[in-house]
Amino acid sequence: MTESDAIITSNLWRACRRTANIAALTTLLIVTSIASYCGIIQLLGNVHVVEDGQLYRSAQLNKNQFERVINEYSIRSILNLRGDNSGTSWYDDEIAISRSMSVTHFDYGIGARRLVTSQQIRAILKIVRDAPKPLLIHCQGGADRSGLVAALYVAEVEGKSADEAAQQLSLVYGHFPYLLSKTNAMDKSFWEYVEAHRSSR
What we know:
The protein folds into 2 domains: 1-43; 45-200, Protein-Tyrosine Phosphatase, Chain A. The chain is an alpha/beta fold. Helix 4 crosses helix 5 and helix 5 (145-157) packs parallel to helix 7 (184-200). The chain contains 7 helices and 5 strands, in the order αββαβαβαβααα. The chain has a 5-stranded mixed β-sheet, with helices on both faces. It has helices at 3-43, 63-73, 89-100, 118-130, 145-157, 162-165, 184-200; strands at 48-51, 55-58, 77-80, 104-107, 135-138. A hairpin with a 3-residue loop joins strand 1 and strand 2. It starts with a helix and ends with a helix.
């Protein structure tokens, strides 16, 4: 290898390293920004309207947030997708607030990183259909499990297209099923149920 070839090769390696460093930094900034956004909306309660007067979604709320949301939207029932957690402060507070404000409370626990079966989905949809309205559904962050149930509601109860319903599982609500995240189980659960339901019609 001539001296000029060595210089060219060295310059190419430096350029590649710079490009790799820039790409890594850009990825880090994007991930950090997304994480910050998700943290902020969760802190604020991540409260959204799915269907006005019928269904609302949120993250796990504290006492004051629950009282505000129940009053603001005239909530008559709550579906907790984290399951019965008797003995924990957040759960006991939620039950106490529900009772004190005459709100019907339901528990149905599912995991954000595990596929939800058709049997589980049918059970959840029955609760959603039968519960006194307006109904508030929530999980921990209000992004994944709540997104799945909201998407199922839009598709199965409102009768809108699956593509429109799937928008309930989006970054707008903090749902980020990429990189090392396993929350794409919620997307898979939704589409598997929709496809199976379509084929059975």
